[in-house]
Amino acid sequence: MRKKNVLFVSEASYLSTGYATYSREVLNRLHKSGKYNIAEFSIYGGSQDKRRETIPWKNYPNLPEPGNEEQNKAYNLDPVNAFGKWRFERVCVDFKPDVVLSIRDWWMDAFIQNSSLRKYFKWIWMPTVDGAPQNEEWIDSFADADAVLTYSEWAIGVLNSQSDIINVKQSAPPAASEEFSPVPNKSAHKERMGIDPSNKIIGTVMRNQRRKLFPDLFEAFSKYLKKTGSNNTYLYCHTSYPDNGWNIPKLLQQNEISSRVLFTYVCQTCSHVGFHKFSDAVRPCEKCNNLSSKMSSVGVGVDVQALANIYNMFDVYVQPANSEGFGVPIVEAAACGVPVVATDYSAMESEVRKLKGYPVRLKTKYLEMETGCYRGIPDQDHMVEIFENLLDRPEPMRAAEGLKTRKAYEDNYCWNKTAETWEKLIDELEMANWDRPLSLGNPDIEVPSGKFKSNKELIDFLITQVLDEPRLINSYPINKVLRDLNFGSFRPNPGGYFYGELSIFNRVTPMPFSPDSVISGFKKKAQEKNFWEQARVGNVQFPKEEWL
Question: What is the pLDDT confidence band of residue 45, given thresholds at 50, 70 and 90?
């Protein structure tokens, strides 16, 4: 029997993002097993990126080739193309995957469900579930996957409570890289890093986004200082400014904590990593003296060892977010033997308990309009109590707490176990059949005028006679088409089958929607299906492209 063809769709595995790290760790282990033909569809990866040469499996880049006007024009037609939509079928025709793996949000991966070639591959999806309840549209997509993994046990509970047809298997959480481990002596490490060993550090590693609750953290830290009168406790924030989140300097001033908060700065000239109280988004580098030291960000990051050094300065790690799909820094901090504190909601609820950490009870929950999910707000006073409890202990007790945290990490998080979970599911799924007979739609069929008694009859005709996909009758995406047709208008939405809900990604004016619009849309979809069906059996020849 031949090896299964396994296609992993995610961010390029050679990048430094969370998704990329997960892809790299799992793919390396699947590749080393020798059981599969592996290919990676690298979102944010380009054909001319030299880092592709380090990948031992087949690689498909998603970015258009520089200077190729035709590719760039096609890429820019749809925002979802940034996540792979525009090339997915081309990759499938070339590689013929038995199994497609993906690990991202619904709005990044829904195009896989809607692919013209969906019937020819099995799909294992690990979507981000960071709030409850999940949108009905997302639930419909999850149900279409052949198997669903989650990042947390909490997510399993959410999905099972909303649907009994989603094939939820188990969680396959990330772990930390080997570099994240405790230092032998925290006081000596602080001294090496330029910190007074007697100082206590509350630390966090979070991008400056709205869901990362820096206002709540700063206010809680201010309350802690006022309550305890501590003059040797600092807050360390490995975060970004400016970014799309909070006004950091204003929050510091409001809470009167500017002199007690440290930030990571990375020099763009000499790459020196240092930490300082906030003075500006850019400051002089203490090593090369150039005005080129910037606060850390996605584009201005530090390497794994530097980040591990930062975690190991912390006496307590805190994650005050309103929700998390997982929260990788919590696990990384625990791997360094740092006790963890996190909001008692979403994936953090599972993580903090598995790591024998300290959940911060919710002050309230609110319904987020854009997603329809509840978000949690941590109780600041409870956060202060936890800080007091952990930091007021003598140093030997704090060290013992760190050892307990590290042991809990070792017991619950392991990349080998995570990869084995994926391997088991891949092995359970049957081989694909890319040699099926042609299955064509009928885009040229005449749609009889005045024959249909209702809009539903029209749509059912289009599904069965034009698109030739009867499985879609009464599906959630098609019901949306019917709803919008009855209403007479729609709002376009990236990721949807045809027309989607109003969301954070879709603040546009409603557009008129008529039977003619629906007929045109279905015929266009049938034409697309027919093209890829012909390509599948070799009746369409593609020119040799550099990115293949």
Answer: very high
Count of Cβ atoms closer than 10 Å to residue 215 Cβ: 17
**CB contact set of 408 (below 8 Å; sequence gap of 6+):** 334, 354, 355, 356
Amino acid at 1: M
Q: Which fold has domain 186-413?
A: Rossmann fold (3.40.50)
Residues carrying CATH 3.40.50.11930, the chain: 4-175+420-428
Helix (H) or strand (E) holding 31: helix 18-33
DSSP 131: S
Confidence tier at 492 by pLDDT (50, 70, 90): low
- State how far the alpha carbon of 21 is from the alpha carbons of 158, 172, 181, 399, in Å: 26, 14, 17, 29
pLDDT in tens, 337-367: 999 999 999 999 999 999 999 999 999 999 9
pLDDT tens across 85-95, in order? 999 999 999 99
Mean pLDDT in residue range 136-156: 95
Please give the CATH architecture assigned to the domain spanning 4-175+420-428: 3-Layer(aba) Sandwich (3.40)
Q: Where are the beta strands (DSSP E) in 52-146?
A: 58-61, 99-102, 122-125
Q: Is the dihedral of CA 491, 493, 496, 497 positive or negative?
A: positive
Closest CA to 523 of 453, 446, 454: 446
Q: Identify the pLDDT of residue 510.
A: 76
Percent of the chain with pLDDT over 70: 96
d(CA 320, CA 343): 6
User: How far is it, in rounded angstroms, from Cα 401 to Cα 336?
Assistant: 12
CA dihedral over 327, 230, 215, 250, signed as positive or negative: negative
Mean pLDDT of 478-497: 76
* Residue 329, preceding peptide bond in cis (omega within 30° of 0): no
427-465 pLDDT tens trace: 999 999 999 999 999 999 999 988 899 999 999 999 999
* Ramachandran area for residue 417 (φ above 0: left; ψ -120 to 50: alpha; else beta): alpha
Q: What is the DSSP letter of 465?
A: I
Are 199 and 232 contacting, i.e. CB atoms less than 8 angstroms apart? yes
Give span(s): CATH 3.40.50.2000, the chain: 186-413
Q: Rounded to an integer, what distance in angstroms lies between the CA atom of residue 414 and that of residue 410?
A: 7
Give the model's pLDDT for residue 94. 95
